[in-house]
Design goal:
The complex is a heterodimer of chains A (388) and B (277). With 388 residues, chain A is an alpha/beta fold. Chain A has twelve helices and 14 strands. Helix content of chain B is 75%, strand content 3%. A two-stranded antiparallel ribbon of chain B has the order 1-2. The chains are: A alpha/beta (388), B mainly alpha (277).
């Protein structure tokens, strides 16, 4: 009864040893470690991030690799949390001996991974938007921080919707509160009054009381920053069921979720450094290459997966600039190299963060996302004053 | 006025969600920890119904039937062999909840899904604009509660069921097929749970874990209500209003814990809770 299993196993072993021999024949490949939340909170978006890394590696290999060496992507599941991240970073850095880490992760996972990155002296490009002010000489960030995402929405509500009062709603966790704290400070500095700020736990699903408070406060606009996925949808549905049709800026909705929400999402304003509708040749080439490689399995490229793609290229440029994969040399030039990708030209030269072109977009009745205005090269502000 | 509507609609939702759990607890004397999973099944049933183009009302019926069918199968193959070991039966329902959640994840994926709402917008009523769908939920809760009350007190099935609730051995001695009563009750409880899951989809996202937060509140409400549908009505009104008032005047974060905490305190000082017998 066990016979077929054993023979299948030995066949697998034989194949593995063949491929190991084949690999050893070439020069040692450059290994890109991707610790990412394949399970847990990030599991919805993580597959799209892995796909972009795979496409970037494939394109680079087809064009001759980095410094003549092949590139391989090594993915590790960090469970979207601190404990999983410690394991994933440890195994990638000390066992797999990766040359660079490039990944989108939760803030908890990033904070847990940073000491390991410093100990292993491995360059790390963080490709997720986050609440800001995370600094390490080994880490560069090519995604947005609140200073870049929030002002387009607040400015638009003030100018185009003459909003004088705003109501804030969020999920009770670091990112939700961090985003709304910044929104509050920014709006108040512009003379907009915050007439309410309400939070529900991350797994909360009953927004009844919050919505009643919102209606009683009669604001000119709403800005929300919930946990992605379920709380976001639940809040939006309940707002619509309660007949709330104020200008509605959502700091946590991504294009894919907005599309799925149907008519309830219509009119929502989002602010992002990437939307699929960016009208540039680079973006069109990228989207075509993605659908060619993944076909029906393609996960819609988004504001978390595109920075991943660009970061792989940023590493390639840095390695070619110093003609080496020596980590200490790489980190000195990661802030200088400029890659022209789907999001435009990106250089991580502001205290390890990058000025980004931000797009203010509105969800249309058919679920598509229409860019309303473009804010060129928004500065990330003073994120890490102690770094160059 | 808005506050009163908030309280009434919150109580209505809680009542619909907890009714199936109470029914199963009454007859079978076990807490069905798979109740949240049945909610989720109902939500996905209405999702499938809306994807194949059925109208929302048909989606609710599909959910009710799907839940009842799952209930029949689960009672027969999982719970029936465990009736002599109540604690194991409770553990089995817990395990079942995990299995159902994982199967749903495998079939539908982890991502959040959406079911379109059958009724949009608000109605002007008694000087305030209020969500039409939530007001409809009050009606549905009254219908569900009324139907269960009639079923239990005005029909032969109900008489037999109440006999099993009050004294199972005596009922069996009188020739009542208690096992069959359990079979039907579990299916009905699961069906109502699924109906509840479908009814909350217009106000909530559909994802594999959506039932979990509801299970806790439903569990606490059933604990304080004992086995009476009337005391469940009182409990949902009392605790629903506590939740809304605490959320409105203090903090929604505290409001979210209100039912669990207040129910625990109630049971501490008044072990029989709201049950009258």
């Amino acid at each position: 009864m066990f016979k077929p299993r054993i023979s299948a196993l030995s066949l697998a072993l034989a194949l593995t040893s063949v491929s190991l021999v084949a690999m050893a024949a070439d020069e040692k490949p450059i290994v890109i470690g991707v610790p990412v939340g394949l399970s847990g909170a990030n599991s919805v978006v993580a597959p799209s991030v892995v796909q972009s890394a795979q496409l970037a590696a494939e394109e680079i290999n087809a064009a001759g690799g980095i410094l003549g060496r092949k590139v391989v992507v090594e993915v590790a599941d960090d469970g979207s949390g601190a404990v999983g991240a410690q394991k994933a970073f440890d195994s990638l850095i000390f066992q797999k001996k990766v040359d660079v880490l490039i990944s989108m992760e939760t803030s908890a996972a990033r904070n847990a991974g940073l000491p390991i990155v410093a100990k292993g002296k491995t360059p790390y490009i963080y490709t997720s938007f986050y609440e800001g002010r995370s600094c390490s000489p080994w880490m560069y960030v090519n995604a947005w921080v609140p200073e870049q995402q929030v002002p387009p929405i607040v400015d638009y509500f003030m100018k185009e919707k003459s909003a004088k009062t705003i109501f804030l709603i969020g999920s009770d966790y670091a990112f939700g509160r961090g985003m709304l704290d910044f929104t509050k400070k920014y709006a108040e500095s512009k003379g907009v009054k915050i007439v309410g700020e309400e939070y529900l736990p991350m797994d909360g699903s009953d927004w009844t009381a919050v919505i009643s408070k919102l209606k009683a406060a009669k604001p000119d606009a709403i800005i929300t920053s919930t946990a992605g996925g379920a709380p976001n949808v639940t809040l939006t549905k309940q707002l619509r069921a309660a007949g709330v049709n104020l200008p509605y800026g959502n700091l946590a909705v991504d294009e894919g979720t907005a599309k799925g929400m149907g008519t309830d999402a219509e009119g929502i304003y989002i602010s992002a450094s990437y939307v699929t509708g960016i009208d540039s040749p680079a973006n069109k080439t990228f989207l075509a290459a993605m659908s060619k490689k993944f076909g029906a399995d393609l996960k819609t490229p988004n504001d978390l997966s595109v920075p991943q793609y660009e970061a792989v290229y940023a590493y390639k440029l840095a390695a070619e600039k110093v003609k080496s994969t020596d980590p200490a040399k790489i980190v000195t030039v990661l802030g200088d190299v400029k890659f022209d990708g789907p999001r435009g030209s990106i250089v991580m030269n502001k205290q390890h963060h990058a000025p980004l072109t931000m797009y203010l977009a509105q969800v249309q009745a058919d679920g598509s996302v229409k860019v309303i205005s473009t804010f060129k090269d928004v500065d990330p502000g003073l994120q890490c004053p102690n770094l160059k | 006025m808005n506050l009163i509507f908030d309280i009434l609609t919150t109580a209505a939702i809680l009542y619909i969600v907890a009714a199936g759990l109470l029914l199963v607890y009454g007859v079978m004397k076990i807490i069905n920890f798979a109740h949240g999973a049945f909610l989720t099944i109902g939500a996905y049933a209405s999702l499938v119904a809306s994807q194949v183009g059925l109208p929302p009302v048909a989606g609710f019926l599909v959910a009710l039937i799907a839940g009842a069918l799952f209930g029949l199968v689960i009672e027969r193959f999982v719970l029936r062999p465990l009736y002599s070991r109540p604690l194991d039966a409770i553990l089995a329902t817990w395990g079942l909840a995990i299995v159902i959640g994982q199967v749903i994840t495998l079939v539908f994926g982890r991502e959040v899904q959406f079911v379109p709402s059958p009724i949009h917008g608000t109605i002007a009523l008694l000087g305030t604009e209020y969500s039409a769908y939530r007001l409809v939920l009050i009606l549905i809760a009254l219908i569900v509660g009324g139907a269960l009350a009639i079923l239990l007190t005005r029909t032969r099935v109900g008489l037999v069921t109440r006999a099993v609730i009050l004294n199972e051995q005596l009922a069996q001695g009188l020739g009542i097929h208690a096992q069959f009563v359990r079979f039907l009750t579990f299916a009905l409880g699961a069906g109502i749970a699924s109906l509840a899951g479908a009814l909350i989809t217009p106000l909530s996202a559909v994802d594999p874990n959506m039932g979990v937060p509801w299970l806790i509140n439903a569990f606490m409400l059933v604990m304080v209500s004992g086995v009476s549908m009337t005391s469940l009505l009182i409990a949902t009104l009392v605790f629903g209003s506590a939740q809304v008032i605490i959320s409105s005047y203090f903090s929604p974060i505290l409001g979210g814990m209100a039912i669990a905490v207040l129910a625990a305190i109630t049971l501490r000082i008044w072990p029989k809770g709201f049950s009258r017998d």
